[in-house]
Amino acid sequence: MSSALVWFRRDLRLADNPALQAALDAGHDVIPVYIHAPSEEGEWAPGAASNAWLHRSLAALDSDLRARGSHLVMRQGGSLAMLQSLLAETGAAAVFWNRRYEPAIQSRDTLLKRTLRGQGIQADSCNGSLLFEPWQLATQQGQPYKVFTPFWRNALTRWKVQPARDAPPGLSAPRVEGARLDTLGLAPKVRWDAGFWQHWQPGEAGAREALEVFIDGALAGYRQQRDLMDRVGTSLLSPHLHFGEIAPWRIVHALEAGRSAAADADIDAYLRELGWREFAHHLLHHFPATAGENLNPRFDRFAWATPSAASLQAWQRGRTGVPIVDAGLRELWHTGYMHNRVRMIVASYLCKHMRVHWREGARWFWDTLVDADLANNTMGWQWVAGTGADAAPYFRVFNPVTQSEKFDPQARYISRWVPELEALPLKARFAPWQHPHLLAEHAPDYPRVPLVDLAAGRDAALAAYRRTGAG
Questions:
Q1: Could you state, in order of their start, the residue ranges of all structural domains in the chain?
Q2: Cα dist. 95→77, 84, 125, 184, 451 in Å?
Q3: According to the model, what pLDDT value does residue 242 have?
Q4: How far is Cα 471 from Cα 468, in angstroms, rounded to an integer?
């Protein structure tokens, strides 16, 4: 029987895996392959938190394969060279993979496919991660969208979700071995990630469980509660989606199965969030330079401040003196994750109050988030900074005090991640610098004043934006 390599990348699952299914449908014995080649990611090689998750996700995938009589063949080195070596070792006639959309990876994959086909090897790629590929939706003028609402309206008119498919019950055993997982250097030598795994279970089983927990719990009331920080009001599926441990269409099918008059608004609200994920990939594909450059060139003239190393580190480590900002950054440091509403507040404080370039924040999130996705990360930071597609108006500056009072009204989120403030009266926990005697008595080690005064920072930011012509 003929064999084919199935090259796993950000599709670390056996169910709903179009590349795997295509190889099986073609009648091939499957040789599952993972190639570790971070240098091919360009300037966006995975960060430390992503690598820590990847280590565990690969272990879970290998375990799932072994339960079906197979195993994951892991190699390290140039992708083309490793694939060619494996083709020679195994006599495989084809290579199948699921597409990725990051600019450096798209360029590599195009060259790789052309080279393999030129050598007489069948090389086919599939859509394993999106409901709509970036080139499938365009304006009436044939241009890419830059605004979400018409993008999503068009998507809904063409809504046809592919069916969910279960994992194959058994697979043939590859007659080739690979590197041991621990030789890839993904797991940190110093276990700074230990706190992550109290919150997360990487792998396909963990993704399925997270979906079930969401449907049974936070989905009811999702539309109203997704912004509340003091509870689990979201799906927590973003890292599983990023690593391809679950397909977006499986999520859609699971949600649609629970449709009812009572659930419609919450389901539609969640599907809209999946739509933002689609929009982010649409933008990155059509505007690949935006991972490091403003989509709106008008903001190239913006007068960003040059932060000191000390002030930037204070922001990174949650020592700004603004409790909701510090809480979010400490949550990130300890769990590899940050609540979405808090991400916007944290980003606004950096870009607008501190007037630090959004690239600094994007880089920090890239290294510390377990769901660090280039498309989502880029779109989110440019949205807050006002420099990107569908961006927040330049004059929108999140007030972290009013935001925390509205979305964390009992300061539970703040108290959890900034526990030194828990002894303060509730009102004082939102803006402790306004209560200096209480702060000195109960939290003497917490910053006495914010890194940047909220009113002064806002005024300086608005003045700088107006000088660009934004106003």
A1: 3-128, 130-164+204-286, 297-467
A2: 17, 10, 8, 22, 53
A3: 98
A4: 8
What CATH number was assigned to the domain covering residues 130-164+204-286?
A: 1.25.40.80
| 270 assigned to a ligand binding site | yes
Cβ atoms of 202 and 239 within 8 Å: the answer is yes
DSSP codes joined into one string, 31-79 = EEEEEE-GGGGGGG---HHHHHHHHHHHHHHHHHHHTTT---EEEES-H
SS3 category, 134: coil
Q: For the domain 297-467, what is the CATH code?
A: 1.10.579.10
Those residues with Cβ within 8 angstroms of residue 252's Cβ, 6 or more apart along the chain or in another chain: 131, 161, 271, 274
Q: Pick the catalytic residue: 197, 340, 420, 422?
A: 340
- 235 labelled as ligand-binding? yes
For the domain 3-128, what is the CATH code? 3.40.50.620
Tell me the sheet residues that pair with 98: 126
How would you classify the pairing of strands 94-98 and 122-126?
Answer: parallel
453 is in an annotated binding site: no
Is 268 annotated as contributing to ligand binding? no
- Is 53 catalytic? The answer is no
Candidate list 127, 197, 304, 433, residue with the active-site label: 304
Predicted local distance difference test score (pLDDT) of residue 341: 96
Q: Catalytic one among 276, 293, 399, 433? A: 276
Sheet with 73-76, strands from edge to edge, namely 73-76, 29-36, 3-8, 94-98, 122-126
Active site residue 273: yes
The one catalytic residue in 53, 152, 366, 381 is: 381
Active-site residue flag, 133: no
Active site includes 159?
no
Query: Closest by alpha carbon to 200, among 55, 28, 389?
Result: 55
Give the model's pLDDT for residue 43: 94
Give the three-class secondary structure for 171.
coil
276 is catalytic: yes
Mean pLDDT in each 10-residue stretch from start to end of the chain (471 residues)? 96 98 98 97 96 98 98 98 98 98 97 98 98 97 96 96 96 95 94 94 98 97 96 97 98 96 96 98 97 93 94 98 98 96 97 97 98 97 91 81 98 98 97 97 96 96 84 51
Among residues 7, 249, 315, 358, the one annotated as catalytic is 358
